[in-house]
Amino acid sequence: MSTEVHVSVKIFQLWGQILLDKYHTKRLDFENPLPPSSDTLPGAPNERAKTELPKVNTPVKRIAIVGGGVAGLYAAMLLKEDKHEFKVDIYEASDRIGGRLYTRRLDGKSAIGTPVPGGEYDYFDVGAMRFPDTPVMAKTFELFKKLKIKLLHYNLGDDENWLVYNDIRYKRKDITAKIWSTDPFKVGQSNGGTVPDEWAKQDPSELLSRMIQPFIDALIKNPEEELKRIIEKYDHYSTRSYLSEKGPYPPAVINWIETMSVGTGWFDRALIETILEELAFKYDSKLKMKWRCVDGGSEVIPLKMVEWLKENAKETKIHTSHRVTAVEYKNHELTVSGICHPLLTGDSSFFKETYSHVIFAIPPPCLRMIDLDTCQLDFAQRSAIRQLQLAPSIKIGMKFKKPAWWTGINQDIVGGQSTTDRTARTIVYPSHGSGNSTVLIASYAWRTQAQDSLVLGAMMHGPGSPEEERLKQVMLADLAYVHKEDDITLERLIDEFEGMYAFDWTNNPLSMGAFGLFGPSQFREFYRHVTRPAARGQIHFVGEAFSTTHGWVAGALNSAARGVCQLLQYHQLATQNSGKEENLVDDLVKDWDPELEVNRKSMFLQIIASLVLEQDEFGGKK
């Protein structure tokens, strides 16, 4: 069991903690609480809570988890304790488990053009594909160890990768500080570009680091005070507005930094999100970060989680192809209803089951597709869920004949990625398979609010469509363009092409986006509302978008731990009120040592906050 929290992890925890502390002080005016029979619950906050709020008297008996991604599966695992087990049903609308952990295998072609099974490593991860071994991601790696998941080295950058901008090419190994001082991509005004010359001759990543690193240094030195200062003075800034005002960097310079370091539109997110992401991955620049991928693809993670549940949680049932369409809250019970096999035509049926509690583990836009009219989500919760935005992201995987052309005589690219200002933007080569994979990601457009991924997503109309054929042509042309100095021609790529799979997370109805993306001040406003339960404490919300670690499996795991802990706190309060107190929170901590985003007192006060707001808005409705 961990005893010391790394400073980078502590900062992420403090972020949520500070936001909730300010909210509780301002909104609820709690007195100093008196603890009940254990230290898990902080007791009744004030006289109003004792006299006016509805009494919590519905213990946890049967739980529905809506969403079979990593957050939902992990919540189910946490609910299986050594001394206790609940009845749990997991509802997944898709015909597969895993959500945004999705691996796609591509077939080859025979001499006459008929499909033949691909090789062992002829796959790509459509969703999460790489995992940095950092303290912030520690719980992810603990899960890998628990499930005996085999990891492989992931090469984030290879010397043979290309950087191609403004029709100029450099191998990654050739880009040095000396090269940057020459304006290598000719974007300076003296070369006909838009970037002032004094900026064009500097490494764009260094220009960004110059503005962000002082925050990181101060956070590491004094986490709590610096984080409070950032929230108060800088939370209203986007990364773009901060660079413009405080650099000050001219607009052309900011656009150039954004193009080279992240992606078009990424600087429109909140400055604090950029700071914390840099902290998570560059907290100690002296260390060479190690990245890992899963042998067999990231889909192995949810499959192993399912195996664990089948072996250890006999009361947990998983229902795929079950789309929840409504949850009704009445008389302290929750009725979950929906459609079985919703993706099939003419063969659908309906289901309806009753539960004491529901955990929603689906993205915010998907949550809005479910009828929750009777579930007493208060105005602030409804507004937060409506406004939470997910970043778009697309991937296009392509398979070629063996041996793969990127492992030829003129080049030997092992992993890493080439980047360009062409439509493909980022080309990702396989790290797995020791050169035996013939599948690469021809385009990975991510971390973008609009341009890159939405342009490509507009062309994804399914295999065989004219638009997707055009997309294939554009991707092959971009691959040839980026690698033309390696004598890779378009004609060769057309001849060796065997298959393609394109996926757009935004236009997928079961995700409606890739991961949480927050603008200035948004997370401060939303986090306090989406981490509160609804339906008098009987509905909980989890997922990476509802965490402090957006876009990573770690965020899904941490949010699931927070949601389950709150549910068990509610259970303890309900059983305490009935005179038969069950403290399962301490057992959760003992059995799992979860990484809770905030302390248990704050999580409990979130339950009380919801009771207060629901009482104000809905009165005595049940």
Give the strand order, joined by hyphens, for the main sheet.
14-4-1-18-26
CATH architecture of the largest domain: 3-Layer(bba) Sandwich
Please count the helical segments: 21
Using the coordinates shown, work out and report the CATH topology of the largest domain: FAD/NAD(P)-binding domain
Q: What structural class results from the helix and strand content?
A: alpha+beta
Q: What is the 3D shape?
A: globular
Q: Assembly type of the shown chains?
A: single chain
Which superfamily, in CATH terms, is the homologous superfamily of the largest domain? FAD/NAD(P)-binding domain
Query: Could you estimate the helical fraction of the residues in percent?
Result: 25-40%
Computed Rg: 25 Å
Number of domains: 3
Biggest β-sheet strands, sense, barrel: 5 strands, parallel
Give the rounded overall mean pLDDT: 89
Describe the structure.
The chain has 622 residues and is of the alpha+beta class. The chain folds into 3 domains: 41-97 and 301-389 and 523-616, FAD/NAD(P)-binding domain, CATH 3.50.50; 103-157 and 391-504, Polyamine Oxidase, Chain A, domain 2; 187-288, Guanine Nucleotide Dissociation Inhibitor, domain 1 (Orthogonal Bundle), CATH 1.10.405.10. The protein has a 5-stranded parallel beta sheet, with helices on one face.
In summary, what is this structure?
This is Amine oxidase domain-containing protein. Residues 70-568 form the Amine oxidase domain. The chain has 622 residues and is an alpha+beta fold.
